[in-house]
Amino acid sequence: MYNFIEKILRIINPLIIKIDSQNLKRKEMQNLKSQLLNTSLLLLACFTILVNAQNTFYNPEGYIEYIVSVRTGDMKNAGTNNQIYITIFGETGETRGVLMNPLIKGNPFEKGNTDKAHFNAKDVGPVTSVTIYVQSNTAFGGDWYLDEIEVERLGQGDKKYNFVIGRWLESGGFSFELAEKTHELKVTVRTSDIRKAGTDADVFIRLHGSLDKTAWMQLDAGDRNLFERGDTDHFTLRGVWNIGTLEGVEIMHNNSGPGSGWHLGSVAVTYKGGTFNYNCECWMDLSGSSANKKMFR
């Protein structure tokens, strides 16, 4: 199921490229592209009907009903039109990958919404982790800010299983542990008080520890203007897995927007009860002699 949309797009995209390379009139080219896109949407609709039928009627022995609640963040552009799958892992096994989009009423995974998907799948016992697979839809996609997931094994008499995510997801697979096994991270960033020190670029942090390193996590605060000259910004990131003893932090910005160069003053990180201070006082600017990514230890 994961590769269904990808297979369609692998067929459609080369045809569009081929059309572009032909000496066709603009109107003819647009008509052909529109027909190809409509064909892919029709195939997607048929696939959606099959998935709905499978999840409604396919309930062999050893299967139970799951309710998965998914909360999308409320910051700008947090929602997505990508195809979202979930695999649930438990003490006795794992479910198949379930496409959630057609199981949700209305338009799923919109900014600030909590969506619920009901489906039947193998009983895996007490839940230990989940994997979210984002199938990128090149025609309509968009990165997705996944805030939280809650899994309920209906009628099994056990607790609801919570997963605190709080991060942007691009295409691919992402595994998450129960919230009780993760940590909260507090980050304080000071932008220097010198000329042109501020930036409008997106800023990310990654922790390096004795056991592992985290994924890149965006320092975001909704629509608030961040990283202005002389300002100190505060962030709380949840769902950070155990990386052992903190050994360093990596800061990066994506160089977006005019004048994206940034003079970073300092970073303070509170992780697992300890606070670590890093005095930076450096430019991060691809247009100059410095880089847009730096490690601090």
How would you characterize the overall build of this protein?
With 297 residues, the protein is an alpha+beta fold. The protein has 3 domains: 4-57; 63-180, PLAT/LH2 domain (Lipoxygenase-1, Sandwich), CATH 2.60.60; 183-296, PLAT/LH2 domain (Lipoxygenase-1). It contains 2 helices and 17 strands. Strand 7 (144-153) and strand 8 (161-169) form a beta hairpin. The protein is flat and about 65 Å long. It starts with a helix and ends with a strand.
Features:
alpha+beta, 4-stranded antiparallel β-sheet, flat, Lipoxygenase-1, 17% helix, single chain, 17 strands, 3 domains, 297 residues, 5-stranded antiparallel β-sheet
**If you average the pLDDT, what whole number results?**
84
Order of helices and strands: HHEEEEEEEEEEEEEEEEE
Radius of gyration (Å): 22 Å
Coarse morphology: flat
- Poorly predicted regions are none
Write the layout of secondary structure elements.
Layout (H helix, E strand, L loop, with lengths): L3 H18 L4 H32 L5 E10 L10 E8 L2 E2 L3 E2 L14 E9 L4 E9 L8 E10 L7 E9 L2 E6 L5 E9 L11 E7 L7 E2 L13 E9 L5 E8 L8 E10 L2 E11 L8 E4 L1
Antiparallel strand pairs: 1-5, 1-7, 2-3, 2-4, 2-6, 6-9, 7-8, 10-13, 10-15, 11-12, 11-14, 14-17, 15-16
Helix pairs in contact: 1-2
